[in-house]
Records
---
Amino acid sequence: NAGVTQTPKFRVLKTGQSMTLLCAQDMNHEYMYWYRQDPGMGLRLIHYSVGEGTTAKGEVPDGYNVSRLKKQNFLLGLESAAPSQTSVYFCASSSLGASGGGGTQYFGPGTRLTVL
Amino acid sequence: DQQVKQNSPSLSVQEGRISILNCDYTNSMFDYFLWYKKYPAEGPTFLISISSIKDKNEDGRFTVFLNKSAKHLSLHIVPSQPGDSAVYFCAASSLGANSKLTFGKGITLSVRP
């Protein structure tokens, strides 16, 4: 099992450009999450999905869109990148939701994005 | 408003000694707590968890203690090893419709040989 994989690993964008980050998991997990990690800020939830075809906003959703057309994939889109979106992005998945300790989240290796 | 707080950004301990990483929370609805470990250039990995019905959970060298009245938990690593040097995140979740984890900012642990 590859677990959770993320594509690409690194990317440099210019302000205003768009891109899509791909997350794939092979564990048949229902729940998937996108986080960003910034220095001194910990992990902040951007968007998440509780199943195929569903998405929901997290703590910092502005400037991002997501789609979950297939159970194993969760895409994060930046329509018009801004320097404030320079960050490391992590995708995670779990078999159950976090409520009451339902599901351990498994993380991908991250995508380092720089917006100039 | 930060609901999960890791107030010490870093900790340095000698190999073989105990490492104690602290975490405080403000949301009384949190009922499950987890610790994740993260090495540079890798994603976080699950380390240990504890339910609010317990006050202690142990897994090998790692023990998590929960003090609900103080809204405080701590991770003890005994004995500490150089390979434990990493960033440790405390996270919490609550019952109900919330499927999300709330993470603290992390603590960087350095274990000196």
---
Amino acid sequence: QVQLVQSGAEVQRPGASVKVSCTTSGYTFTSYDINWVRQATGQGLEWMGWMNPDTGDAAYAHKFQGRVTMTRKTSTNTAYMELSNLGFEDTAVYYCTRGGDFDFWGQGTLVTVSS
Amino acid sequence: QPVLTQPPSVSAAPGQKVTISCSGSSSNFVNYYISWFQQVPGTAPKLLISDNNKRPSGIPDRFSGSKSATSATLTITGLQTGDEADYYCETWDGSLSAILFGGGTKLTVL
């Protein structure tokens, strides 16, 4: 069965960076894009960008350009999302999701930015 | 600012039907598919409808989607208490080259 398993919760200081992993199984990793979506507490869903695990190509939402990097390690079927220069407003649950349909989702990773 | 507009909340009794609307302000809304997601608080979103009206395997036919040139609708029939959740529409905005989500609609089953 298709699974996306994300890394655990993180607490970071303002100005720091965070890197969240998304390890996939049950399908061919390089056949589906990985998208990243975040959700602040009590708020809606916000798309951050996508990555093609086959080529490594990525495209980011305008809001995050310059601060986000999406990468992958094909030997472990794992995608990564790194967000730099964190601010308090980046406190949110971060999700990875499969393909253009967003048909399978990771369980979410809570990133808390706190001084 | 291209947005997808949803009502903040809807409610209906068990067994009844409810519709949730999603209106697009972008002129590109007509050109792209709409998807719908269900999110029970504290859990990850779940795909309910893709490509305007296609249900993934395992999604009951009580859930259906439709789309016109300027809006999309999620219809849920035979409401159950387990349907209480937040519902989001989503589409691609060609002018922004970005995915957009609606603001979400909280469904209460009275």
